[in-house]
Design goal:
Layout lengths: L1 E3 L9 E7 L6 E2 L4 E7 L2 E6 L4 E6 L6 E3 L3 E6 L15 H9 L19 H7 L4 H10 L17 H16 L34 H16 L2 E9 L1 H16 L7 H14 L5 E4 L4 E4 L5 E3 L1 E2 L4 E2 L2 E2 L7 H16 L13 E5 L18 E5 L3 E7 L2 E15 L5 H16 L9
Parallel strand pairs: 12-16, 16-17
Antiparallel strand pairs: 1-8, 2-4, 2-7, 3-6, 4-5, 6-8, 9-19, 10-11, 12-15, 13-14, 17-19, 18-19
Helix pairs in contact: 7-8, 7-9
């Protein structure tokens, strides 16, 4: 019985093997976790779909594997798991497939993953008869790029014909004219031998770092970004935190300034809905969201992760503090799921605990704005003609100028300042 990688979730069809938790000869149970797979910024536990003794493992740590690829084989010791209903072909459909050529299907594998389906790898997990394999070799067709229509994903002659038809149609399409105003091509990277000047240590780029780099580059290259700076008085928030910290700790929750920030930002977003939107460039529409899901940037040993707290405007300060603590811990332990990092409408990056003042946070697409907070410090401030010592915190609001105008950003900042300085104590009480 082959155990294959199951469907990972919407929009996810591959991942990097982080840990293999079994070895050949082990006896495993159905639904037992057999490996950990990194997909986007999350690490998911993959269960076995069958029980038995592991006879062979087809993958190793660091491999990129795709949905449907063999993970391991088991035999004896237990009944195999039933195949998903969707995978079992209906008798009627099977008869039709024998008489007609299947409709061409779009290739679902990214070009960047094409190397994973080299001829050397195909023989290991593609289900096809020897005659089909021979024909593919003669035609120069990579069977790993074809999705089989028979039981278990087995490739038949009709699947190959449909794939060839799709290639012919794609080749027949006229090439798009080169854009005269296209951005200049990225220069070819040059590899430099830095060891010629002294000792070095090489550290491989992790899959998570690759995701972060790709997303930051996408945001930097596509957004007309502007960052607006200001200083906000956190004196009252600091006093409220000290006043209620003991009561929160008595209930097992640590009260930090971040829940205050969440509430103040949510209240301001309700006043300025354009900051709680996204730009749909395909439909040429601005999507105004009626829900407020705030992403919180969390600094981890592996890199930046952004878990999302949903419906912030509807939750109490206690619930926000508790959820924030839980999500931050899961992010640092790499136990957070991909779904817990999706659906954000606005992001907050708080570097106050680390240090530093103003910075320019990069917008977390497809959102249109992000708020950055630096380290607060006691400063002399003039209030009502008198000099007072206040806890002032530097803030930076980066926004997409394609959607948000400068005047709107200034008004948002003014109202955000008021939300912080006039924070309602009743919201903090348990």
């Amino acid at each position: 019985m082959d155990v294959k990688l199951p469907k990972l979730g919407e929009g996810a069809d591959s991942g990097i093997v982080v840990n293999i938790l079994v070895k050949e000869g082990d006896t495993i149970a159905k639904d037992q976790t057999v490996l950990e797979l990194e997909n986007e910024k999350a690490v998911a536990s993959i269960p076995s779909t069958a029980a038995g003794v592991v006879t062979k493992i087809f993958i190793k740590s660091g491999d990129r594997i795709t949905v449907g690829q063999r993970i391991l084989s088991v035999e004896g010791a237990g009944a195999p798991a039933a195949a998903p209903a969707a995978a079992a072909p209906k008798p009627a459909a099977k008869k039709v497939a024998a008489k007609a050529v299947p409709e061409p299907v779009e290739d679902e594998h990214d070009d960047e993953d094409e190397e994973e389906f080299s001829e050397e790898n195909v023989a290991a997990y593609v289900a096809a008869s020897p005659s089909i394999r021979k024909m593919a070799r003669e035609l120069g067709i990579n069977l790993g790029k074809i999705r089989g229509s028979e039981s278990g994903g087995r490739i038949v002659i009709g699947d190959v014909r449909a794939y060839v038809q799709r290639l012919i149609k794609a080749a027949a399409k006229p090439a798009a004219p080169a854009a005269t105003s296209a951005a200049p091509a990225k220069p070819v990277a040059e590899q430099i031998d830095f060891s010629q000047w002294g000792p070095i240590v090489k550290k491989p780029v992790t899959p998570l770092r690759k995701v972060i780099a790709r997303r930051m580059a996408e945001s930097w290259n596509s957004v007309a970004r502007v960052t607006q700076f200001d200083d906000i008085d956190f004196t009252k928030l600091g006093e409220l935190r000290k006043k209620f910290a003991v009561a929160y700790e008595a209930k097992g929750v640590k009260l930090t300034l971040t829940p205050f920030v969440l509430k103040a930002v949510a209240a301001t977003l309700k006043q300025h809905s354009i900051f709680n939107s996204s730009l749909d460039e395909v439909a040429n529409e601005i999507i105004l969201k009626e829900y407020i899901h705030l992403g919180i940037a969390v600094d981890t040993d592996q890199g930046l992760m952004v878990p999302v707290i949903r419906d912030v405007d509807k939750k109490s300060m206690f619930d926000l503090a508790k959820e924030l603590e839980s999500l931050a811990a899961k992010a640092r332990d790499r136990k957070i799921s991909a779904d817990e990092m999706k659906g954000g409408t606005f992001t907050i990056s708080n570097q106050g605990a680390i240090g530093g003042k103003h910075f320019t946070p990069i917008i977390n697409l497809p959102e249109v704005a992000i708020l950055g907070l630096g380290r607060g410090a006691l400063q002399p401030v003039v209030r009502d003609g008198k000099v007072e010592v206040r806890l002032m915190t530097p803030v930076a609001l980066s926004y997409d100028h394609r959607v948000v105008d400068g005047g709107s950003a200034a008004r948002f900042t003014v109202d955000l300042l008021k939300a912080f300085e006039n924070f309602d104590e009743a919201l903090v009480k348990i």
